[in-house]
């Protein structure tokens, strides 16, 4: 099975085009104003049109309310909703029912205890995204360029597709996939020259590196 690659935090036509041409499976748009990658609804609409089914469009939100999600549905028509906040199991179920799109729930990881939430989310989400737990004083719950201890997922038995993120780079993604056996990788900071500024060469290098790890992936 081919490793899924998601390039997250795209905010310009040029870098979106680079990600599409390089073969990204998923392209992520951040709708979270404190993030340096935040896009307005208008920009999301414009970038969404550019995708033209060449990749899955992922809307990243953080504890968004229904009105916000309604607006994002209208503007981007995402293929996947990435819930990257503290959404409860009930809220994830509710969003999936109300908006009728597959949901990828981000689970923050810093220690083995963080995996206790998995049975609950696995019952309602379509995919799990393991990301490094952000420090308490962080301005956002992800997109910080820091990895977590991938060995925490070494013996994971999860009956659901999952991806890994947090501090990935072209140089370390093979190791992350080898240890976690994730079916996909998600990156933002690692393909940037500054927060929010995507670097086309790094996007291409990351996707090239991901394609080279194909045989390591199992889920
Ligand atoms: O990218 C952001 O700004 C962001 C903001 C709020 C929540 C999540 C965010 N990004 C996600 O964080 C991870 C890790 O990113 P990085 O490669 O370590 O920078 C990734 O899943 C992004 O989708």
UniProtKB/TrEMBL annotation:
- What are the protein's UniProt keywords? Amino-acid biosynthesis, Aromatic amino acid biosynthesis, Isomerase, Tryptophan biosynthesis
Q: Where are the transmembrane segments?
A: none
UniProt xrefs under PANTHER family: N-(5'-PHOSPHORIBOSYL)ANTHRANILATE ISOMERASE
Q: Which gene name does the record give? A: trpF
Q: What is the lineage of its organism?
A: Bacteria, Pseudomonadati, Pseudomonadota, Alphaproteobacteria, Hyphomicrobiales
Q: Which InterPro entries match?
A: Aldolase_TIM, PRAI_dom, RibuloseP-bd_barrel, TrpF_fam
User: Cross-referenced Gene3D superfamilies, in alphabetical order?
Assistant: Aldolase class I (3.20.20.70)
What are the recorded GO MF terms, alphabetically?
phosphoribosylanthranilate isomerase activity
* Domain called N-(5'phosphoribosyl) anthranilate isomerase (PRAI): residue spans: 5-208
The name on file for this protein is N-(5'-phosphoribosyl)anthranilate isomerase
As for family, the record states: Belongs to the TrpF family.
Catalytic class of the enzyme: isomerase
Reaction catalysis annotation: N-(5-phospho-beta-D-ribosyl)anthranilate = 1-(2-carboxyphenylamino)-1-deoxy-D-ribulose 5-phosphate
Which pathway is recorded for this entry? Answer: Amino-acid biosynthesis; L-tryptophan biosynthesis; L-tryptophan from chorismate: step 3/5
What's its EC?
A: 5.3.1.24
